[in-house]
């Protein structure tokens, strides 16, 4: 990918994610746009509600500090390249839909690639197509790729700390709210599913 220019953010996102792919390019553009509107989240002031759990989310985590571990990354299983950012400092929210996913046109050839069905010539073609899609999504203007709107949403719940209980089956500690009861014992979810499954 010689003709793709990497800025510091893209370099770090690739390092974090492990490779450069169309999905990472999507997340990079979303995160770069948000950086122009909100600051990076040092603590929990910026919350991201991500409507997918694909490659794009990694760029958002790396560039904006919205991470699963801090509790300011909320996952909704909608399968959409939509990210809503809620800023706790001023209660504003920005919803971004990535409308410029040109890698969508490659679904067929990609499926065949992963099944190992492409001839050597087709593999070259696939890589070139993919690289062109990535380059486009890294370089096209915001207006062509993103649809961003301020929205009115309630503040997402803050990450909560719960007391620890110990499972009466495996003896491991777990968050109280995740407890279950089975055979008259208080147990963790893991043991519960094994005992009742
Ligand atoms: Zn990826
Ligand atoms: Zn257990």
- The count of DSSP E runs of length 2 or more, i.e. the number of strands, is 9
Average pLDDT rating: 93
Instruction: Give the topology string: H per helix, E per strand.
Output: HHEHEEEHHHEEEEEH
Gap between N and C termini, in Å?
Answer: 49 Å
Kindly name the structural category.
alpha+beta
Report helical residue fraction: 25-40%
Describe the fold and architecture.
The protein is an alpha+beta fold and 197 residues long. It has helices at 8-17, 22-35, 56-64, 107-114, 120-139, 142-145, 189-196, and strands at 46-50, 73-75, 82-87, 92-98, 146-151, 164-166, 173-175, 180-182, 185-187. It has a five-stranded mixed β-sheet. The model has no long low-confidence stretch (mean pLDDT 93). The protein binds zinc ion (ZN) (2 copies).
